[in-house]
Amino acid sequence: MPSLKVNGYEMHYAEAGSGTPVVLVHGSLNDQRYWAPQMEPLGARFRVLAPSLRHYWPERWDGVGETFKIDQHVEDVAAFIGTLGAGKVDLVGHSRGGHIAFRVAERHPGLIRRLVLAEPGGELDESLGGVPGGAGKQAGAFAAAAELLKGGDTEGAMRRFAEHTGGPGAWEKRSAARKAINLDNAHTLLGQIDERRRPYGRTAAEAIGVPTLLVNGAQTQPQFIAIVEALERVMADARRVVIPDAAHGMSSDNPADFNAAVLAFFG
């Protein structure tokens, strides 16, 4: 498995294809393997790289320490792109990885050619219609899942988190392969309790000038639709596509349509 030394951390990644680089950033409880349905189709036209973020598989993290923060992951992804030495990249992020991709584009615009945000996770601040001072559903879901994990109910923790992103029965609907990936990364939930993820704000969204594709599943949860719609209203160069027959995990629920949408955007 290839790796790059990034900010003092050995970041492992999957790679396919050649040419213009496309970097894929996974979300919560996932790792580079989440993007398996994208590697070959996108790799037919691009050099596709899917890193596992700090403390995710293949590392077996115990959830202890102060290095599991959104800002750490943002700077790790930026450094990963810089270490490639290939110039600007097309950056694709899903869920929590979508939030990270958004922040990379906000803070390091010179690294990004085009941006794909697939149901970016998080909350909205007041400037984008969020609840004043509210922690939102996300914090409650993280805390509830983490408490189950601490109590030894790992599968219960996975079920609670899956239902936050996918609704009732979401865990049971997942394939054995997706469940295995989630279980391999279970202890990263402990890091998410205090990951310090700031809500999306109008000023930050308006400042992102690169062409951006916003993607959501037709059957997804309302909190993700609210974020996509808010960003669509204010980002400078944003367009949106809805993936049919898919919920939050659209890139695995309906990979054919997801891949086609991304490739059409890249042109």
UniProtKB/TrEMBL annotation:
<dbReference type="InterPro" id="IPR050266">
    <property type="entry name" value="AB_hydrolase_sf"/>
</dbReference>
<dbReference type="InterPro" id="IPR029058">
    <property type="entry name" value="AB_hydrolase_fold"/>
</dbReference>
<dbReference type="InterPro" id="IPR000073">
    <property type="entry name" value="AB_hydrolase_1"/>
</dbReference>
<protein>
    <submittedName>
        <fullName>Alpha/beta hydrolase</fullName>
    </submittedName>
</protein>
<feature type="domain" description="AB hydrolase-1">
    <location>
        <begin position="21"/>
        <end position="254"/>
    </location>
</feature>
<dbReference type="Pfam" id="PF00561">
    <property type="entry name" value="Abhydrolase_1"/>
</dbReference>
<keyword id="KW-0378">Hydrolase</keyword>
<dbReference type="GO" id="GO:0016787">
    <property type="term" value="F:hydrolase activity"/>
</dbReference>
